[in-house]
Design goal:
Length: 285
């Protein structure tokens, strides 16, 4: 890949960001399509995020992804935000249109495309059980709502966070039946996990040395599918345990892929080379 004075610059803002798989994914797509573009990683201290966002304008960067811990804090520095990102309360993709910065949240579309592709699952009129109530859970919940879910249970260690999320999102999606329960309430978890059509882990449980989820997986129906947003290791304890029970289960690498696919298409107007991007992720991960 030759860098020239005309090369269009894209990148990701995060802290830390050295572990990001987005640079190899996007650079593989640029190279495959012969685009004069490059994607870089920028480690930005939270105290400097406003200046970093303004530098997108000043330096003429074409598009930026945003990851932890900046997805919420970038919002006040943007000129426009699409309605979906407003509901989620987070932005993970920014496009620079002649100095006007517009924010998107492709995590929402990314998780929908991933569960459809990896698990053959359509959330329309289905019962959803979500573990976690942080930023990832928020995007996933909005995705399930926009996908037409019938009911959504949010189980979280700190139940007040789950309740706050339910109260806020129920105002936007009044056709969905919401419930918030504490993750350590065994009776409530057992009662509400049994009818689930999909179980989605949006917590960090199972990532690296973090303890895995303790859920009554044996109560899940044989038709239930399981999606774990954790993607390192590629086969998480939750995915392994569910597959051992004969359930279809997938890790979150697909969400990373498809949110990147949608960001790429927003930036470039080109059809993203999905399989090239998938291969770059699998090699890098």
């Amino acid at each position: 890949m030759g860098i020239k004075a005309t090369t269009r610059i894209y990148g990701i803002l995060g802290h830390p960001v050295s572990q990001s798989l987005s640079p190899p994914m996007h650079n593989a797509a640029f190279e495959h399509l012969g685009l004069d573009s490059v994607y870089l990683a920028f480690d930005v201290d939270p105290r400097d995020i406003d200046e970093a966002v303004n530098s997108i304008r000043v330096l003429g960067l074409c598009g930026i992804n945003v990851t932890i811990p900046h997805k919420q804090s970038v919002i006040e520095s943007l000129d426009e935000i699409v309605p979906e990102a407003v509901i989620v309360g987070a932005v993970n993709t920014i496009i620079n249109n002649n100095g006007v910065l517009r924010g998107y949240n492709t995590d929402v579309s990314g998780v929908l495309k991933s569960i459809r592709s990896e698990l053959g699952f359509n959330p329309h009129s289905k019962n959803v059980f979500i573990v976690g109530a942080g930023g990832a859970a928020r995007a996933v919940t909005v995705a399930m709502c926009t996908g037409g879910a019938r009911s959504i249970v949010i189980a979280n260690r700190t139940c007040s966070r789950a309740q706050n999320l339910v109260e806020e999102l129920s105002a936007h999606f009044d056709s969905v039946s919401f419930s918030a329960i504490p993750l350590d309430d065994a009776d409530s978890v057992s009662e509400l996990i049994a009818p689930a059509d999909i179980l989605i882990n949006c917590s960090s449980c199972g990532m690296g040395d973090i303890e895995s989820l303790c859920l009554p997986l044996g109560l899940l129906s044989g038709n239930c599918v399981v999606y774990d947003l954790v993607y390192k290791p590629s086969v998480t304890p939750l995915v392994r345990d569910c597959r051992d029970l004969g359930l279809k289960a997938a890790s979150g690498l697909g969400m990373l892929l498809y949110q990147g696919v949608d960001a790429f298409e927003i930036w470039t107007g080109e059809t993203a080379p999905v399989e090239i991007m998938r291969k770059a992720l699998s090699v890098s991960g």
